Amino acid sequence: MFVNIVIAGCMILVTTSIHAVGMVLVMQVFESKKGPPTRRLMRIFLVSAVVVMMSLASLLEMLIWAITFLALDAIQGLEAAFYFSMVTFTTLGYGDIVLSEQWRLLGSFEATNGIIMFGWTTAIVIAAVQRVYFSKEFKDQS
Hints:
The chain is mainly α and about 140 residues long. It has one domain: Helix Hairpins. Helix content is about 80%, strand content about 0%. The protein is built from five helices and no strands. The longest helix has about 30 residues, at about 40-70. The protein starts with a helix and ends with a helix.
């Protein structure tokens, strides 16, 4: 159990770092703009870009979990490991691929990690929508 907790702690640190980098990149996109976008298409593009960037961060995090399962020999094959990781990270939980008793605690940690990362992503997307569509600067320019 202790090994699972240590591995999970490292994985949560790694995924949190990836998500933080994604958030900083999103913030840099907005800081590079002088005021909020005024064209509808540009606003849609900016919010969509935020969603895509944070989705890519999440996919990278799931892939790193999958590689960890492969390295531990907990799952055979990259496709199966990535599939298991996606189903677990998103808390979909089909259950068609399961970890052995030795590693099953890692699955719970990945699901917990996924819930937190998706909550964080939601907060980033909402902040982007508020910035693009509802900021005081935008209302002043209208």
